[in-house]
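Worked problem 6 (solution included).
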Amino acid sequence: MKKSANQLVVLFSFILGLFALSLGCSGGDDTGEGCDNNSDCADGQICNADGECEDSGGDGDSDADSDGDGDTDSDSDSDSDSDSDSDGDEVVKLPFYVSDYYDNGGFMSGGSPNDMSADECPEDPDDARCHMFTWTGDEWGGVFWLFGNGNWGLEPGMKIEPGATEVVVTAWAETAPQEARLIVGMQHPTEDPPHEDPFEVYDEVTLTDSPKEYSIDISEETYESIVGAFAWSVPEIEEKREVIVYIKDVQWKK
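Solution. The predicted structure is:
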């Protein structure tokens, strides 16, 4: 009888061991349980490199925003400076600074363009968006910001996001007061250029010796690409003299 009781105890212990083992194998939904692959873990968990189940950290939805920046690309910047159109060409977004994309070497005059020089603003030579121009002559003179050095309409302009309403610029003159024309867009720069701009608008202003912001309205204009994003010019004068004009922070804006 004592032997039969001992046998029952051993059998009961064996059954309890099997029951406990079965519980351990079905515990894949608890973080930290052992696993060989993701199928050993509960929904929403993965099997990590240490062989333990852990929460995947996903947001539970099926969108393509893998970087959390609000867009569906794989970078961390939802405010890229440009997009691409249906042809794969770069389209620069608004707003943008003209000096970041256009060359200010489009010297123009009724006389010799060699009488025009361009330099950095002496007050802040590291500011790439501030320019000092010196014009010596009695004819009219000015400068265009061109898309490509020397591109007077022989090559296409830069594609720009639609919807610009104004171009703002800070300008002043060392030789104030100075009559000037602030221009956006370039038409008829040469005889029958293949890529002239769809519009050319300007404002007549009087520059003072203190920086002042001006706005050229382009809200009624339509465009796809622009060759001459901005220009300034001064009229001819009776006597030859030196004219010094400062142009800073030219910006296309919505």
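Discussion: Residues 20-32, 58-78 have pLDDT under 50 and may be disordered.
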